[in-house]
Design a protein that fits this description.
GntR family transcriptional regulator, Arc Repressor Mutant, subunit A, mainly alpha
Length: about 230
Amino acid sequence: MRNRPESASDLSQGQNAYDRLLNEIRHGTLPPGARLREVDLAARLGISRTPVREAIRRLEADGLVEHLPRQGATLRRLSYAEVMELYEMRAVLEGTAARLAARAASELELRELAGINAEMTASTNPEDIVRLNRLFHAALVNTAKNRYLQRAIAAMGRTLLILGRSTLFDPARIATGAQEHEELLRALQNRDGTAAEAAMRTHIEAAHRIRLRQLREAGFLDSHAHEDGGDVPI
């Protein structure tokens, strides 16, 4: 039997399913190693299997899903080496974005960044703080005005979703994160690209340390993982 062509409704539902699954991955509802069964997901999301299949294909293209023998589509687990490499690349890419933003950002864009960070500092709601932090970083990347850098950061960001909940859900990280944003903003306002890049790298490295501590406390970073690069069930 020939597969019927996808309708506009399928495509719209596929986008919706993709967005919802991404959100579940971001919040840790779908953890690494979770099996993505089309029938189960279709029933849970209240749609047919066709858009679910399309959403899973897109997640696989993003590098978030792999097909394992006897399991099928499964949310990837990242190795210890991959976690290290991701944060190294994040520091490089977002550090570059900060350096470019110091040159290219308009005064209006800098005021917008300052406003987002002020909201983040004033908030006591962890969900809002995480949302505002995500907005701050996205706005900063936009001010760099380099579409190729934007695409590279977006692709890396999708892989980072496998790590689950933001490190900003750690209470100790909230205050320091906002302070690091302030250092970055001062460098941007002074049009100091070198200082802006250094401030962003410091910010990302601090988040990296928190992430590794969380994984270590959860028992995921043992000596075996360091020695052979084995899977880290994040």
